[in-house]
Write a structure and sequence with these properties.
Elements: H1 2-6, H2 10-14, H3 22-40, H4 56-60, H5 76-81, H6 91-108, H7 120-150, H8 157-174, H9 180-203, H10 212-216, H11 218-230, H12 247-282, H13 289-294, H14 296-301
Helix pairs in contact: 3-11, 3-12, 6-8, 7-8, 7-9, 8-9, 8-11, 9-11, 11-12
Amino acid sequence: GVQWVWGGGWLSELGYVDFAGSSLVHMVGAISALVAVSVCGPRVGKYPDYRCWRGIWRYVFSERNDSAWYQLPEAEVEKAVFTPIKACNNPVQLLFGTFLLLVGFLAFNPASTMATTFNTDLVSARTTVTTLIAAAAGAVSGIVWSMAARRGLKLRVPELTNSVLGGLVASCACCHVVPPVFMMLVGFVGGLLATATAVAMEYCQLDDTVGAVSVHGPPAIWGVLSVALFAQPHCQSDLRGLIFGGGDEAWKLLLTQITGILSLGAFAAMATYISVITIDLAIGFRCNRAHELIGLDFTEHGI
């Protein structure tokens, strides 16, 4: 995928634009995580009414257990070691980790210029501003979502942090061409997509433990499409999006962006599925129930 876009490959020749890896890094990772989650199944006790894959899907996702295997422990010996699953064990650490990621994105996006000398310093400065704006807009969307969902002023930290990261992920593809005003929209929608996808994953009983699919999936796709929608010409770029009167060229760019999303997504899904199923058939993709209940820190690392 990297060769297709950044190595002069066929997507690059088509004119596909992904400045810092919304699709190449984040979307590919999200799709890989979705495939892995579908094969692995949820943590024991996560969904009390969980129903495992059935019919042909049982074979597609190599389901080896029945629904009871995933239920809350009933035996006394299992209850003694089982720790109930929480949405967030330590909000302070979660916020601090998000802050570290924000700092990382400031290296991730501006550093994609590969230099800060001569004319490239303008791109670095522009991407720094738009990245921070996207993060702030994502945070606002998380606050709005949390308040609206609970009809009150209390905020849930996971929703806030996921929205911030969703805004940052969306900014990666387009931070060099989208003007700051429209980057507020890109970040806000990216944050909403991250939170809404997390809710959808829970509804489908897909146990996305750290929000890899929700944060890195739809927001990344939105960021790639935003290039064709909101790109504004400036001294470092001639790209013009649909909003700024790009006309036929902008429509062509939008089609190219969609082609890249579908191609990279299909490749990621296929490669991950083959890898995961091969591991599952060879040595097993998931630990046994006893080890999971005791905890892998102890069974794998002795701590």
